[in-house]
Amino acid sequence: MATLPLSLSFISILLITFSTNATASKLGKETETHLHFYLHEIFNDTEPSTVLVAQGPNTSNLNTSFGAVLVMDAMLTETPNRNSKLIGKAQGIQLIAPPLLSSQEDRSLLFVVNLVFVQGEFNGSSLAVLGRIPISSPVREMPVIGGTGRFRFARGYVLTQSYEFDIVKGDIIIEYDVHVLHY
Ligand SMILES: *[C@@H]1O[C@H](CO)[C@@H](O)[C@H](O)[C@H]1NC(C)=O
Ligand SMILES: *[C@@H]1O[C@H](CO)[C@@H](O)[C@H](O)[C@H]1NC(C)=O
Ligand SMILES: *[C@@H]1O[C@H](CO)[C@@H](O)[C@H](O)[C@H]1NC(C)=O
Ligand SMILES: *[C@@H]1O[C@H](CO)[C@@H](O)[C@H](O)[C@H]1NC(C)=O
Question: Could you tell me the CATH superfamily of domain 28-182?
Answer without folding.
Answer: Allene oxide cyclase-like (2.40.480.10)
